[in-house]
Amino acid sequence: MNRKEDEWLWGWDPTPGIVSVWAEPEGRAIVWRRLPETDALVREDLSFRPWLLLASLEDLGHLGARLRPEGDGPAPHRVTYQELEGPGALRYVIRADDGRTLSSAILQGAARRLGRPLQHLRDLPPEVVFVMPPEEQYLIASGRTYFRDLPFDALHRLQFDLETTGLDPEHDRIFLVALRAPDGSTEVLEVHGDEDDDEAEADLLGRLVARIQAWDPDVIENHNLHGFDLPFLARRAQHLGVPLALGRAGAPGLRQRPSARGASLGGRSDAPATNGAAPGQNGGARTDRQRRTRYTVPGRELIDTMDAVLRHDFSARDLPGHGLKAVARHFGLAGPDRELITGARIHHVFRTDPERVRRYACDDVKEAAGLARLLGGAAFALARMAPRRYERLADAGAATGVLDPLLVRAYLRAGAALPAHEPGDGTSHSGAALHLFATGVAKHVVKADVASLYPSLMREYRIGPRRDRLGVLLALVDRLVDQRLDAKARARAALPGSPERHTHEALSAAMKLVVNSAYGYLGAVGLTRFADVHAANEVTRHGREVLGLLCRELAARGVTLLEADTDGVYFSVPPAWEEADERRVVSEVAALLPPRVHLEFDGRYAAMLSHEPKNYALQPYDGPLLLRGVAFRSRRAEPFGEDFLRRALRCLLAGDIPGVREAYISTVLALRRRTIPTHEVASRVRLTKASSQYIATRTRRRELPYEAMLANGRTHWSIGERIRVYRATGGRAGLLPTPATEESEQEDGDALEGRQGSERTSRDPRDYDVEYYTRQLRETFAARLARALTPADFAAVFDDPGQPSLFTPCLSGARPILTVLQEPQEHRDEAESPVETTATPG
DNA sequence: CATAACCGGGG
DNA sequence: GTGTACGGTTATG
Questions:
Q1: Which residue gives the smallest C-alpha to C1' distance to B11?
Q2: What segment(s) does the record annotate as region Disordered (predicted)?
Q3: Which of A300, A236, A226, A290 is nearest to A263 (CA)?
Q4: CA-based angle A714:A716:A722, to the nearest 5?
Q5: pTM of the model
Q6: Nearest residue to C9 (CA, C1')?
């Protein structure tokens, strides 16, 4: 039993060190392995028997004697079949020595049956035929997976980053490439001679290819590699007639593979639906739902750190943005001397200060390498389990990308027929519970939550897909949960920062990812093979019951419930309670929950402002204020307002209402005295229209950013350029020089010839519209404190300091309020079915 | 003014 | 082969 389930999770072939697999439909496969002991690379050329699944043999009847049972011996041009057992639409494994003969035989039979010609197997319905990409056919048939016994740090990884004159490969050129070699050294390649010369650029691309071939990495990485660098490179190479021999085998050139995300830029050139009508198009401006492609090469895995970043932020939701600089800074990967240059000025700076651009580009590849190691371990670990290429696991969704291949492999290994995708029966998916019990300020706040609630419920109540008759999904979840504990223990046992620790942490992260996607898998009707919305609804129903139960039980123990969402609850305890009392109620309630459902004490806070569902501020007993939800963390909020909000919240949560008033007054006065620098009131925007486009619509509607450009004599700009704009006096639009990164308020060196720090302030015009920003302060920022004050106190706190009212309000006795909602606000994500209300605490 | 479409990133 | 969300802005009726 254990062995079988281990095979479901890990495959069964022990071959170590596979770093890349390339297979062709004709039945040839190349496997590159890095020998863990010697670091040497070995290449195996193999043949395999391509296979696919069919619902019936009728389309192969025309083969006559060439169609034989799998058990019969070899015969020339044979096509074999193996009948799988049990129910399931896809019940025949068909194999041949060449996958093309296989598909043409089926197409021929199906065309005859349907009376119309067929081009591709995908023209047949998925319940009739199922084919996987050749690499996956090979991995499933062989039981092999990537990276067995190989630590992440044994991979030979190379990063490269293009610096270009702009974003559009039709018109812009590559003038510099930074490379980071597998040994960690960096190198810069630059265009020699005339930058506007095709030959000079072609020569640069040739040198890039030569360096990659010389270093021969297993993996090529960069941030937005598939979204920018590869499609840009491919387009330029095509224009210049340079062969891109980036792979380890086969014809030079990048190949394309279909993908959900990825190239928004390179796909355009060969997307049939694109008519190129959009003027001033850049990479991001897609006019239709074109199918995206990604590039792939034999022998190397092309890894985009953006995918790892998105995957991380999907659960963590703590990143300030997804750009390389912001993420690197967030994770502490950016050094203190990190060179920053605004994107639009890189080429310009290169002409006057090339050394700065070299530093910048090298910092980019170093950060991309750091990011790839920090966040890429999960995909690396997934590649040890799932029968897919590493590069595909890096950008795949966990449900269709990881669980589906695991399930397919398990069923075939067991010789069991595979169900086809099934459309839903119309039952809608009911979601989690969300309760808002109180708004305003509460003190002595505790957060308790259930770790991995949904997988725990699936395990506890044995809820799996109805059609998964082998119980593979639950078996995988069970094993992943158990083995994850083991991986976590090993990670803890290893030296911090060591390769072993990194590998075990990555494994643990990957396992968590898969476990948590098991529930999503159930609900993805039409997308996943075994989707079962009834099972998914059963999970959420138990989840709502558990949340309701724990809320009731907590309330019965004398706490005040604040907000509960899916698997966690915030509540406030009586002032006399100690932390031990807080922990005691949590464990008392935990004991009442089902065995696998573990309620945990997750944190304690001095105070909380509950604003709206999923929008709150927390003041830890020590440490900085925590803001959650869009109301408190808006990416484009003006810095002066954010700053005010933080100061006001800190006072508010300390019960200091006069302090809130003071924060407000000082901000208003600072605006009026113009002691707030202009960049603090400016907002960052992106220009999405070309100047000609804007001028065409300008009479109908004026837009601040473009007005700011025009008013500052900027009549030309590129789409996507980021600027800082503000409202200036007299209805004018103000424009500020953009610092190199969103977060950086450091001087923007290249804008200031001579680099005098004081120059910036002396240049600050300070001509912003004070009244506009005062109103903004009151209406959008102060408004977020409304729940915490009585209407009278709110009016007094945010009374205009310049126009003293008749009553000088006395705030010294004012206290923040907490309003316990009579009817707690009940929400349910995607709720369509009748709502069972959770009993409210007494 | 409401709803639909589109964006996130890269130089 | 399939797909990630979701909150915010801009385009359009």
A1: A166
A2: 248-294, 734-768
A3: A226
A4: 75
A5: 0.83
A6: A685
- What is the distance in angstroms measured between the alpha-carbon CA of A313 and the sugar C1' of C6? 12
- How many CA atoms, within 13 angstroms, populate the side-chain half-sphere of residue A833? 15
Domains in chain A: boundaries: 2-143, 152-254+297-385, 639-819
Residue A411's alpha-carbon distances to A334, A469, A818, in angstroms, are 46, 10, 56
The predicted pLDDT at position A822 comes to 75
* CB-CB contact of A613 with A619 (8 Å): no
**Per-residue confidence (pLDDT) for residue A123, from 0 to 100:** 86
Query: What letter would DSSP give residue A184?
Result: S
- Distance, angstroms, CA A246 to C1' B6? 34
Length A288 CA → B2 C1' (Å)? 24
Judge whether A629 and A616 are in contact, CB under 8 Å: yes
As averages over each run of 10 residues, the pLDDT of chain A (842 residues) reads 89 96 94 93 96 94 91 85 94 94 92 90 89 95 95 95 91 95 97 90 97 97 92 93 91 70 37 28 31 81 91 76 88 90 89 96 96 91 94 85 93 95 77 86 95 91 94 94 91 89 88 87 85 90 93 96 91 97 97 94 94 86 83 71 89 94 93 89 71 65 73 71 77 71 38 36 75 83 88 90 64 89 59 28 24
A65 token code pair:
């004697």
Phi, psi for A317 (deg, rounded to 5): 50, 40
Strands (E), A170-291: 174-180, 186-190, 219-222, 255-259
The domain made up of A152-254+297-385 is a member of CATH 3.40.50.12280 = no
Nucleotide nearest to A315 (CA to C1'): C5
How many Å apart are A517 CA and C13 C1'?
40
For chain B, which bases have at least one atom within 7 A of a protein Cβ? Answer: 6-11
Among residues A381, A448, A384, A706, the alpha carbon closest in space to that of A582 is found at A448
Footprint of strand C on the protein (CB under 7 A): A 122, 126, 131-133, 258-261, 310-311, 314, 392, 395-401, 404, 421, 520-521, 524, 526-529, 614, 630-631, 634, 636, 685, 688-689, 703, 705
Q: What is the pLDDT of residue A62?
A: 92
Nucleotides of C under 7 A from a protein CB: 1-5, 7-11
Strand partners, A635: none
Instruction: Write down the pLDDT at residue A720.
Output: 61
| Structure confidence at residue A371 (pLDDT) | 93
What are A174's two structure tokens? 């590559």
| DSSP 8-state class, residue A20 | E
Q: How far is the CA of A551 from the C1' of C8 (A)?
A: 33
Angstrom distance, A565 CA to B6 C1': 29
